[in-house]
Write a structure and sequence with these properties.
Helix content: 40-55%
Largest sheet: 5 strands, parallel
Shape: globular
Radius of gyration: 21 Å
Number of helices: 14
Strand content: 5-15%
């Protein structure tokens, strides 16, 4: 029996209809089964146990439906704006379990899944691009809760867009929860002239109560070092031996990502058992690096192991990138890709 040829990410050009973007606004597979009681706080970091307590109480307070119902509020009389923060903002370093807690909040909120939305900041802005601003507000205003993972302002357009969107949703009675590596009042620093958009950033900050979570990256806590990169021959052999694995040259994949909208990166990885890459090398520029970050997030969310040859993942981003305004994104990507590389060890014949 002959082996099936591996799949190729570069051969995929997925089309993602708008209704799929809405339907997929739920916790990703990696976080489908998490709950508050499966989060193990570090006893040396009391802020972690405090976060569980605060978020559990926040979820319990969302049991009563807001007056009026979403669409009726949207098309009918405008309610009085709520006083005080209408959301929780989890601030902390990468790997302290913020996404675990955010997904646990989604699961604990007493509402039907169709009345709760969960997505990354990129997925939220992609939804606006697909539906349009007014339709996005109409779609989400009937929700009890909107969870936004990896909240990061990368450009002035995002700042104005998200400020307007969240303002409309809060007026409609939607509760908010977000995670980020940056305090809400510091969003955009080092990425664009944030001072010019201070009013919008302060408006965003006013929607949230900031909750700091301290700790070290759980993905590498007490674990052995990440495996060293394999040879091209080992990666190629593993891709041919593993049903449902993809095999691509890393430079070709980076070129392909430039031609696929980031909103489709999740679909790009549909039904893959593993991603195998040859010739991994430092990324050449910031635009390429940011696209790779999005792909790393989608692979991590979907628990797709990554087997690679070439440079180790901690050398993907140059010193100028790791010291720049997007450094927290790059460290998150390194952390997640390293965890996926560890997951892929079993693919290589010993």
């Amino acid at each position: 029996m002959t082996e099936a040829a591996p799949l190729s990410l570069c051969a995929r050009e997925p089309h993602v209809p708008a209704d799929r973007l809405v339907a997929e606004m739920v916790p990703p597979p990696r976080f489908d089964g998490v709950r508050f009681d499966t989060y193990i706080p570090d006893p040396n970091q009391p802020s972690q146990a405090e976060a569980v307590k605060v978020l559990s109480g926040f979820a319990g307070g969302l049991g009563a439906a807001p007056e009026g119902g979403g669409l009726r509020r949207w098309f009918g009389r405008k309610p009085a704006a709520p006083t005080g923060p209408r959301g929780i903002y989890l601030d902390g370093g990468y790997g302290v379990g913020k996404t675990h807690l955010l997904a646990s909040l989604w699961h604990a909120t007493p509402a039907e899944p169709s009345r709760k939305a969960f997505g990354t900041f990129v997925e939220l802005t992609n939804l606006v691009g697909a539906l349009g601003f007014q339709q996005t507000v109409a779609t989400l205003s009937g929700h009890r809760l909107l969870c936004i993972d990896e909240f990061e302002l990368d450009d002035p357009g995002d700042t104005v867009l998200v400020s307007s969107l969240l303002g409309k949703l809060v007026e409609a009675g939607v509760a908010l929860a977000a995670t980020s590596n940056t305090l809400p009042g510091k969003l955009g620093e080092g990425r664009f002239a944030a001072a010019d958009f201070l009013r919008e950033i302060q408006g965003l900050s006013a929607h949230f109560r900031a909750l700091r979570i301290d700790g070290e990256d759980y993905r590498h806590r007490g674990l052995p070092d990440a495996p060293a990169p394999y040879t091209d021959e080992q990666v190629t052999a593993a891709a041919h031996a593993a049903p449902g694995a993809s095999l691509d040259a890393f430079p070709a994949l980076l070129d392909h990502l430039a031609r696929v909208h980031p909103s489709r990166y999740g679909a790009l990885t549909d039904e893959l058992s593993a991603v195998c890459l040859t010739g991994v090398a430092p990324v050449p520029d910031q635009s390429t690096a940011l696209r790779l970050v999005v792909l790393a997030d989608r692979l991590y969310d979907r628990e797709v192991p990554v087997l690679a040859s070439g440079a180790p993942f901690d050398r993907l981003f140059g010193e100028d990138m790791l010291n720049g305004g997007y450094r927290k994104k790059y460290f998150r990507a390194i952390s997640r890709l390293t965890a996926l590389a560890r997951d892929a060890k079993g693919l290589v014949a010993q």
